[in-house]
């Protein structure tokens, strides 16, 4: 699996973090977040936004596989 991390200007990071219920403090470099799993499609568009952890690894894998095939 390939991981991608959020990079960009301070304003861009704050904007994206806010979209996903995350808080970012630039002075300290801290990032806090809710328990959320976000899946983006190949175009970078939001394909799934799962809150909590009430899904199995198999369910998550099936969802990712469907998104990849689209």
Structural commentary:
By secondary structure, this protein is of the alpha+beta class. The protein has helices at residues 10-19, 57-69, and strands at 23-25, 30-32, 36-40, 46-51. It has a two-stranded antiparallel ribbon with strand order 1-2. A two-stranded antiparallel sheet has the order 3-4.
Question: What's the layout of helices and strands?
Answer:
Layout: H1 10-19, E1 23-25, E2 30-32, E3 36-40, E4 46-51, H2 57-69
Antiparallel strand pairs: 1-2, 3-4
Summarize the structure.
This protein is of the alpha+beta class and 70 residues long.
Q: Report the sheet-strand fraction.
A: 15-25%
Give helix % range.
25-40%
Low-confidence stretches: none
Give the helices and strands as they follow along the chain: HEEEEH
**Shape from CA axes?**
globular
- Which structural class fits the helix and strand makeup? alpha+beta
Number of strands: 4
Rg calc: 14 Å
């Amino acid at each position: 699996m390939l991981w991608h991390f959020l990079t960009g200007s301070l304003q861009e990071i704050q904007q994206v973090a806010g979209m996903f219920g995350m808080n970012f403090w630039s002075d300290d470099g801290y990032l806090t977040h809710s328990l959320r799993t976000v899946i983006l499609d190949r175009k970078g568009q939001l394909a799934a936004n799962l809150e909590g952890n009430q899904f199995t690894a198999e369910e998550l894998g099936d969802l990712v596989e469907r998104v990849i095939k689209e």
